[in-house]
Amino acid sequence: MGFTKTEAIVLRTKELREADSLITLYTRDWGKVQVVAKGLRKVKARYGASLEMFTHNQVMLFSKTDKDMARLTGCQVMHPFYSLRESYFKYGMASYLLELVDKFSEYREANQDIFNLLGKSFSLMDAGVLQTRENYLSLWNWFVLKILDYSGYKISLESCIQCKEKPALNKPVVFSLPDGGITCRACLKSQDYLFELNTEVWTKLRLLQKSALPQLLDIDLAVETKLAIKILLEKYLQFISGHSFNCQEFFYTAANKS
Ligand SMILES: [Zn+2]
Questions:
Q1: How far is the CA of 240 from the centre of ligand 1 (A)?
Q2: Is pLDDT of 176 > 60?
Q3: Could you report the per-residue pLDDT of 34-69, keeping only the tens digit for each?
Q4: Domain range list for the chain
Q5: Contact 88, 94 (CB under 8 A)
Q6: CA angle 72, 106, 40 (to 5 degrees)
Q7: Looking at domain 82-250, what is its CATH homologous superfamily?
Q8: How many angstroms separate the CA atoms of 131 and 40, rounded?
Q9: Who's near 72: CB < 8 A, 6+ residues apart?
Q10: Between residues 85 and 244, which one has the greater pLDDT?
């Protein structure tokens, strides 16, 4: 790495002994990077709130080799994303997105798609256009479909994952968690970890998977469909990662305003 200048979003911070801190950044050019901040009080005095979770910074980093812990040698805030800390709901949602990026990324492995996904999603939340929890639910579903795609776990929705046959468009399909996609009844190997998706859920999942962020709120989705998609995606995340996510709990109702 040597000396490098890149953009970074703060994923998490952890206090170490003697006022030092371990900061995990998600960077545009180096993927996930751990940085030690010596004497966090001094660092905070120098860099202000830029080392808090969610903040998007321009950073200068140094490490001798790709294996060493990096040192922070400069930091300038680009987007503080203050509003993500304004409500319990927004904070929970933003933390959930960070947790997903953390789980689906590797140290020192750049993935510009994931960096842009996170930055654009935070910008949308920060702009205040989402308004309702239902819209946040749409963002969450979309975000998960995209991060699965960008990290090599894209779910297969167009044809049977085994025989590649396209299912009839007007009938429910079966989604297999172990196969990561839909499967026709002839190819079913076991009865475990299967979900039946009705035509509405299946159609909207495919639409969401293909859509870009600006179109997200134009997709007409009933709350029940959004919730069905979220349940499927959460089961799938749990299946491939082997655990549930810490931030999962906050997000159970889509009925109220944020
Ligand atoms: Zn098949």
A1: 22
A2: yes
A3: 998 877 667 777 777 778 999 999 999 999 887 778
A4: 2-79, 82-250
A5: no
A6: 25
A7: Recombination protein O, C-terminal domain (1.20.1440.120)
A8: 36
A9: 23, 35, 37, 43, 47, 59, 60, 61
A10: 85
**Distance from the alpha carbon of residue 226 to the mean position of ligand 1, in angstroms:** 27
Distance 187 CA to ligand 1 centre (A): 4
Give the chain's mean pLDDT: 90
Question: Which of 2.40.50.140, 3.40.50.11740, 3.30.1240.10, 3.40.50.300 is the CATH number of 2-79?
Answer: 2.40.50.140
CA of 201 to the centre of ligand 1 (A): 20
Q: How many A from CA of 169 to the centre of ligand 1?
A: 15
**pTM tops 0.70:** yes
Q: How far apart are the first and last CA of the chain?
A: 42
The alpha carbon of 207 and the centre of ligand 1 are apart by a number of angstroms equal to 22
CA of 2 to the centre of ligand 1 (A): 51
**Is residue 18 over pLDDT 90?**
no
**Tokens in use for 45?**
């005095």
Q: Residues within 5 Å of ion ligand 1 by Cβ? A: 160, 162-163, 184, 187
How far is ligand 1, taken at its centre, from the CA of residue 204, in Å?
Answer: 21
The CA 166 to ligand 1 mean position distance, Å, reads: 8
Residue 188 Cα to ligand 1 middle (Å): 7
Question: With contact defined as beta carbons under 8 Å apart, do 205 and 198 qualify?
Answer: no
Ligand 1: centre distance to CA 186 (Å): 6
Per-residue pLDDT at 255: 42
- Residue ranges of alpha helices (H) inside the chain are 40-47, 88-103, 112-126, 133-150, 199-210, 223-241
